[in-house]
Task: structure prediction
Amino acid sequence: MNVGSEISVYGTLDAARQQINGMKVIQQDLGASFDSVYPATKEVKQATIKKLVRAAFDEYEGVIPEVLPQDLLTKYRLESFHDMIQNVHFPKSPHDADVAYRTAKFMEFFLFSMRIQELKQTHRKPNDASVIKYNEEMVNEFISKLPFNLTGSQSKVAKEILKDLDSPYAMNRLLQGDVGSGKTVVAALAILATVSAGKQAVIMAPTEILAEQHAENLANLFAGFNINIALLTGATSAAARRNMLPNIENGEIDLVVGTHALFQDAVHYHNLTLAVIDEQHRFGVNQRQLMRQKGTGTNILAMTATPIPRTLAITMYGDMDVSIIDQMPNGRKPVKTTWISSAKTNSALAFLKKQLLAGKQAYVVTPLIEESEAVDMKNAVAIFERFQSIFEPEFKVGLLHGRMTNDEKNQAMGDFSNKQFAVLVATTVIEVGVDVKNANTMVIFDADHFGLSQLHQLRGRVGRSSDQAYCILIADPKNENGKKRMQIVSESSDGFYLSQKDLELRGQGDITGKQQSGTPDFKVADPVEDLNILTVANQEAQRITSESNWQRKPENVQLAKYLKMNQPIFTD
Result:
């Protein structure tokens, strides 16, 4: 081995002794032969695995099918399936290894995207029950009576949705929009169009607080349009349910706003044709499917205020059409965000008092409810008591956390909304909650314990009016990653940018929770690091499947055959 040679070293790290056990050095000079590294154990050695892989390849290399169409191999300088497998395991040069891994990544993403597109086409079967022949005059009248002008982005998205509704193919659309971008008005437009055609609609929210907010906001928006609205949640009394359910079933109620209660067995609809699902990432696939099954040809409009990076949009929601509202309403000012250390907490309290004296309200957020011996974080109960001692009786302080009953939560949120409290100390249950336009300040303790996207969602609770709003992050991050997150969220108010940075810093699994999200577990490719390959592979899959009878074209026969086998490309 020569001085200046590039080498690879592998083995098991013993952090306590600061040494690598079972270390092996592989020289990587150009032209030198490579050794592949496999996940060996004490029982199964590297040499054994290598011998078995070699034997398997020698035995079956003659029957390895070609999967990728030739035009893709040529266009992106990829190699055949056979050569890719050979050079992943037995490369003769760095170039051979690089091309093989680039091909493997493209193939994994491409075949995944092909299956997603096939799934999308399966769902897109014509169904006359999905068609909503809405009243254009009523829709235009609704738009003209709004107390504000729709942004260009809202108008564009509204047209996409209305086009879907007037189509024989059931809508399956994801509406993304940053906090405060005006998604609810667009959803109201879709609901009004549905009702104008004599059909029923529902809007499903993850919490009773949010459902009540929607019911109130939509009642105001639909004033003068003779739309009957009902609110159905777990808190709805038995007597109210008995009166409501027959009117839902006979069609007297046009719009039902609620929570999971909307798809219970006892709830029957007259002609449900549109289901709007708010904060859809909080509902599982089965729950959305249950809502869809409540009607025949139900159009689905899923909304989220959590900006989704392209990586997750492609891998998690590739079977949905995506609309994005990327403009904020006129006059809305970005929230001014500042990061300070806990040593400067008193300066934050002084600023907060100044805002309260000006007649404004504030949220104070903390990660925990009660003290934890394992984690040294500020907690809601302790902060609540501290703030009471500082601000009362001049400014009343309220408390809101996840262990309270629904009635207690609603009471606390209602009291804050009605200005009974000047300060609301809360855990993240206020991440999605009622809009309190008078609240212009948020203080977040131990902010480094939240992800970027969650911090962005939290500060979206303020800045809901034309007044300047403020968010103060109090944090003493222990590492560079934590410091970087605090700097990023302080400098940017772009939710899509923050969600992408969150993905890069924390990883896909940490953000989505793989058990919950259904995020695919790729074996070779990394959706974050290899985003460009993922994007191109997805575009090519869309192009191929958009052609009629694409499976019968000679260049796609092997691809279609491989997909029909419905096997993963790479396995553990």
